[in-house]
Specification:
Layout lengths: L3 E7 L8 H13 L4 E7 L24 H11 L3 E7 L7 H8 L9 E7 L5 H13 L3 E2 L4 E2 L4 H4 L8 H4 L9 H19 L1
Parallel strand pairs: 1-2, 1-3, 3-4, 4-5, 4-6
This protein binds flavin mononucleotide (FMN).
Length: 196
């Protein structure tokens, strides 16, 4: 079976952020699945320009890209599927994430996206916004998001390990992870085959 590549995008960039913890935990769960690789894509490492192009990227085949944007788009283009991990900021997604997505033309087209969120109450409003943005990029958001309802800063360490007091719980915010990542891999494989 071909290896499936999943890009796990960290959707915030402030110095004291906690979203990388959630992203690393999700990436670890993905790597548990046979023939699947997870690559963390951290927006803080790209220093992307604020979008100011003359035309929408999808309507501009002659785009001239700067180095950072080129690298961002190439990294997305290599993936068969995505997890967009976003905190909720002011009932929406962080500006850095929206800007990065506005720079995308067709790198996510016909590929599945698992929407993962957190915030004071799971980040459900970030998911609503993201689902709409992902549609604009011609990507396919999976029906069920992963809304982490626990406290990321308290539950997950900097290496992406979930605290024992959470894993030992029969019910909890961590229980949805396995079906969500399995569904993502199923869609990634199916759409990868269909695109070929
Ligand atoms: C500017 C800002 C706005 C926020 N607005 C919301 C919000 O509307 N709803 C919510 O549930 N949490 C909100 N939060 C809490 C964040 O979702 C939470 O602190 C999360 O850890 C931020 O992710 P980060 O640490 O990766 O930046 C906000 C945090 C910040 C910094």
């Amino acid at each position: 079976m071909n290896t499936i590549n999943i890009a796990v995008i960290i959707g915030s960039n402030r110095k004291t952020r906690v979203t990388p913890r959630l992203a690393k935990w999700i990436a670890k769960q993905i790597e548990e699945i046979t023939d699947v690789k997870a690559e963390i894509i951290d927006l803080a490492e790209y220093n992307l320009p604020l979008f100011d192009e003359e035309l929408p990227p999808q309507a501009n085949p002659e785009r001239q890209l700067g180095e950072n944007t080129k690298r961002w788009l190439e990294d997305l283009g290599r993936a068969d599927g995505f997890v967009v991990v976003s905190p909720e900021y002011n009932r929406s997604i962080p500006g850095v994430l929206k800007n990065a997505l506005d720079l995308v033309d067709y790198q996510m087209r016909r590929k599945p996206v698992l929407l993962a969120s957190h915030g004071s109450t799971g980040g459900t409003q970030a998911v609503v916004v993201l689902r709409s943005v992902i549609g604009g990029l011609k990507a396919v958001s999976l029906p069920d998001p992963l809304t982490y309802t626990g406290r990321v800063a308290e539950d997950i360490d900097e290496q992406g390990n979930l605290a024992d007091r959470i894993t030992s719980q029969e019910k909890g915010p961590h229980k949805a992870i396995v079906p969500r990542v399995e569904e993502l891999v199923w869609y990634s494989r199916a759409l990868c085959n269909a695109r070929q």
